[in-house]
UniProtKB/TrEMBL annotation:
This is Nitric oxide response protein. The chain crosses the membrane at residues 45-65, 77-95, 101-119, 131-156, 190-217, 229-248, 254-279, 314-336. The keyword Membrane applies. Keywords: Membrane, Transmembrane, Transmembrane helix.
Amino acid sequence: MRMPLLLMVSGIALLLLGGIPAVFEFMEMQGFPIDPTSNIFPAHWFIMIYGFFGSLIGNEVLVALSAEWSGKIASNGLIGFYLVLLVLGVTSFFYNQELGLVFVLIAMAILLYYSRVYLERSRLGLEPTVYNWLLFYSLIATIFVLSTQIGLGYTIPYLNLLFPTSMVFAVMTRDVSLVTRVRVSGWENVLAFIFLVLGVGFEQGALMLLAWALSFHASGLYKAKGRKYPIIHLVTAWIYFLLGSVFISNYDVFIHSIAVGFLFNTVFGVDVVLMDLFINAFQKRVSVRPSYIPFFLLNTGLVMRLLYDFGVSSPVFLLSAPLQGIGILSFFLLTLRQVMFK
């Protein structure tokens, strides 16, 4: 199996490992009598952020974006070493959180080391753009977050959202214009990135709101002219980002608005990056017909979860977590099925 494909498949496996316990945990809160994954749930957030998103982002940095910018991808040895570190980090976290952080820190250092490629001229002779630099600084911020927790001797779960969220901001600086067909403002995205890092780092809603306003304006989503499918997903993602910023004092609303609503709607919507991943993983050109089923399932379940957080109660909310989980999993399965059997 090719290393990029192995990294992708491993990411989906880690998605299941981290996601299923969260489904049972919320169902138990609703009165469901069985939770066979209760021992795994405490590590749920770590598996999702550094296991699943670590695999996804690692594939982008080492494979997809690298092939586009430099015309080559990382060596199989480097990709394999990165994957081993992620797996060691996840497994170690169960019995020694600090050791898990150390393994992931080394993995992020590998991405940072490799990302120097993005600070050089592209294969077409282009100078590094805003997105290249933001990608680089996103990894620096992530390493700082991990190092801080290692130094403190304990974890601060919400702080680790900075890794996938800041990376999404960096990549969106490049890719959102491909969706909206609107010229993206570089300086607004730089400011949005700074406010995002500070807002998440210090849990400040006002800074998060500034990040939202600047990034949404820079994206041009309010005047987009591209395909409806990605635009609907990205507008939905930014609505959740706004919701998380406004209700940052409500921990559960903040976490799920950003970690589920913003991040996964962005992943679903920006199929440009996914196509790059599949092209390099399967070594062939691919064309995928997107489905709205994952979007409907994910967001129906998430709205139920947020209503519950705001004090609304209903027996139907038992379906909230399963709908989110099925929505996320169905997206990857539907996409992979089309790629593998074409």
